[in-house]
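Summary of Year 1 activities. Much of the first year was spent building the evaluation harness for sequence design. The harness presents a backbone, in tokenized form, and records the residue chosen at every position. We chose the following record to illustrate the format because it has been used consistently in internal testing since the harness was completed.
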């Protein structure tokens, strides 16, 4: 059996989609805490055996010996979260509890880290080392702390899961993100703005060397993000050797927000129209102007599937989901 926390979220529900549709597996327990009134729709098309609230999971796990892996995507993911105590409880302590359970029950553990751990990128985006990173917000720090903790557990011969990996997700976009509201991808915001206003609004630049709309991100389609996680899961379930550790999940190619917005409008079949607005004060000084994942480490695990290009990923998202009556995957 496979447990997916955050299974009603974008990445979690798409991992479940991948297991259902690519591997014909439905032996999953979905764990989440649904707070958005429409988020349940991320689960309607999934096949799984049980749904649990996040606070039910640890007691449910007691005494079980039929869980092969926990895929831990659940977390407070808002970069604007100000309550650090909540971040500690949900993003650190809860993750540590699940790690320890896997370590003592011969189960694999795969969890969501974040590219937010890299901060402003001054020390690069290399997943071979997480030393000297300086996240820009409490969310990024909570993820960085747990990355450090997992590596410490491993290096000091503390009990560890049978196989494990942390995934530094870069800018993920795609279907089933509709509940994220302000934290949804620029792709979704661009689509909604264009449908409503006939234009897309992007932030002006507040950094020398970057023109308006030319802030760069490594945008990765959610289907690719899910496929990488399942790649590691399959290796664990088949007892294939793999180096435990922390891995970037991006495309390795930084693209401008202007490129993404343009791709959205072209996928709708319209002429691009972009306007530029001031960046909110709560983001100024905590905003990444460039992210680009190094991907050599992932390639070394034998992952050979090509990633969607920005244009192809946006086209699939817009035409096969956002423009349909039922936008859910």
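For this record, the design step produced the sequence shown next.
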């Amino acid at each position: 059996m496979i447990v997916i926390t955050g299974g009603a979220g974008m990445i979690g529900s798409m991992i479940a989609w991948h297991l259902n549709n690519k591997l014909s597996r439905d032996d999953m327990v979905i764990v989440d805490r649904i707070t958005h009134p429409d988020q349940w729709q991320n689960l309607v098309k999934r096949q799984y055996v049980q749904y649990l609230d996040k606070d039910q999971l640890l007691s449910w796990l007691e005494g079980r010996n039929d869980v092969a892996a926990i895929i831990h995507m659940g977390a407070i993911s808002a970069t604007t979260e100000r309550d650090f105590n909540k971040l500690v409880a949900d993003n650190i302590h809860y993750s540590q509890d699940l790690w320890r359970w896997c370590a003592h029950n011969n189960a694999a553990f795969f969890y969501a880290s974040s590219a937010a751990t890299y901060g402003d990128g001054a020390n690069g985006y290399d997943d071979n080392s997480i030393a000297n990173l300086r996240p820009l917000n409490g969310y990024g720090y909570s993820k960085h702390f747990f990355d450090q903790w997992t590596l410490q557990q491993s290096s000091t011969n503390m009990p560890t899961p049978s196989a494990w990996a942390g995934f530094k997700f870069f800018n993920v976009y795609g279907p089933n993100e509709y509940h994220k509201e302000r934290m949804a991808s620029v792709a979704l915001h661009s689509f909604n703005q264009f449908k409503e206003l006939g234009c897309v609004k992007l932030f002006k630049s507040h950094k020398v060397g970057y023109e308006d709309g030319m802030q760069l991100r490594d945008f990765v389609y959610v289907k690719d993000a899910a496929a990488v996680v399942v790649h590691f899961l399959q290796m664990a379930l088949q007892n294939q050797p793999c180096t435990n550790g922390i891995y970037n999940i991006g495309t390795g190619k930084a693209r401008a927000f202007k490129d993404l917005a343009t791709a959205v409008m072209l996928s709708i079949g319209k002429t691009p129209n972009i306007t530029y607005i001031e960046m909110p004060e709560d983001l100024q000084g905590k905003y990444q102007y460039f992210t680009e994942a190094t991907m050599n480490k992932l390639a070394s695990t034998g992952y050979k599937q090509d990633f969607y290009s920005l244009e192809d990923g946006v086209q699939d998202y817009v035409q096969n989901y956002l423009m349909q009556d039922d936008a859910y995957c």
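The chain has nine helices and 13 strands. Quantitative recovery figures across the full test set are reported in Table 2.
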